[in-house]
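Batch 3, record 17
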Amino acid sequence: MKSKFGSKRKEGLLFTLPALIYMLALIGYSLIYNIILSFKNMNVRTFKGGNSVFVGLDNYIELFKDPVFLMVLKNTFIFTIACLAIQFTFGLIFALLFSKKFPLSGVIRGLLLVSYMLPMSVSGLLWRNMYGLDGVFNTILMSLGIIRQPIEWIVSTKTALLSLIITNSWIGIPFNMLLMTTGLTNISKDVYEAAEVDGATKWKKFRYITAPLLKPAALSSVMLVFIYTFRAFDLMFIMTGGGPLHSTDVLGTLSYSYSFTQYKFSLGAATAVVLFAILFVVGLIYLHLTTKEEAS
Amino acid sequence: MQTNQLNEKLKRESRKEKRKDFILMLIALGIVVIMLFPVYWMAITSVKSDHEIFAKVLTFIPKDITFEPWLVQFRDRNFLYSLRNSIVIAFTAMTLSLSLGITAAYGLGKYKLPFHNSILLVFLVTQMMPSSLLLTPLYLFFARTSLLNTFLAPAMAIATNSIPFIIITLRPYFMSVPKSLDEAARIDGSSAFRSFIQIVIPAVKTGVITVMVISFLHGWNDLVYSMTFNVEATMRPLTANIHKFMDQYGMKWNNIMAYGMILAIPVLTSFVFLQKHIIGGVTSGAVKE
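Prediction for the assembled complex:
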């Protein structure tokens, strides 16, 4: 019997190990190599010559002394937090709306998901067109009399990051709606019925039932969306290339341009490590929250 | 008399309910009109004539519909090879991800493994890795192994996104397959692997189709890996050649939007047919078991 159990375990491992080894080989290797690289002076010259050496914390010191890097770090946080706030608010409102059953609610909810499903690069192209100086947004806003002068959207340093926040929120709202819908359906109907018997108002029901019971699901989806948004790349690359004047540059695009347009591999690696370190902390909180939720 | 009054009251209530439903529906329709306007804009721009594109006044309903901007693409050699590359990269990434991901999902769903939770955690954590972390090490690795400018290089990197996704999505499906089903096949003398292929996989067909479609889309939508590892335009998929085509078309936004529409087609069609499953799949990465 015991040997049978042992062979079963072996069987299970045989199914699982290839994927595990693959992931550890690619991701584990990348992670370790990236960290090592960030302490060296690898650029296109030292890579070809094979004579890169360890330079300690030099790359990190260079980064944190560089006003461009500090601005990019700030951009990344502003972008992520603004997107989170907008997406979470609208995601929750939409989820609450569609938790009611009304004619066509299923179809309409499904249609809403299209903006999330579109490839990022397509959304980037599309919004780049709509943000044009004589594009559709300026045309609508001017004909409604909301603005007199066309807004420069993605070509002005003042509005470029905001424009990308709007676009990314448009993409992310349906995803947040789905996450919140899952959270809402997990709240038992009995609780509401009991409250109704006690004569609770709508606001009271939201305040004292929905909000507290939704909190764990809401928290973990905020963390998850933070992780997805903080590593943004595609949208910036297609719409602005990080410009104008780094105003839409984020850690992902900066790391790319260090490594692959300036061929400063070590500086790019150090930037990626900073990005990873921040995600790692948030990821730990996320895992802590979800496992706690599971336990309760 | 009493029952009549009660009926009246119930009728009034239900009329009130109906009116409330109607208002909710109007609000929802308003939201969807605003949210989908950009997609509508892309669709109509892609069928406008050059003349209309360059006219001073923007039109919200195209005056005359022409499919020329779409046809232009299919006469363009650059477009055709980019399309082929998109398809090949997506299929390679999908095949690689499915063969590793489905088996691992089964292993973790059906067996109790040593370090079971740690293994699961590895997959959960790797799913959150930023692509920036992989770019430089893998670029240098592919440079040494002469895999730059091949379809395998981006596919291998894309699979690191899809594999954890497949495992997290499919594992609950395998957990719900009754043990008797699998064991019956074993008694007949089938090996574990054969019963997995012939009995278990067909039993979780919907789950497998969902992860198949989504991992294909992962590959189809990829931008960063393909553009980093494949510098040659002839080896790049549609996504990574966008800037090249924007230069080529200049201000001809009808052509650019047609390009975007074609790029969006796989997503939109699979969405129409598999909406329910995809919705489940999209959030399953986020929801713990």
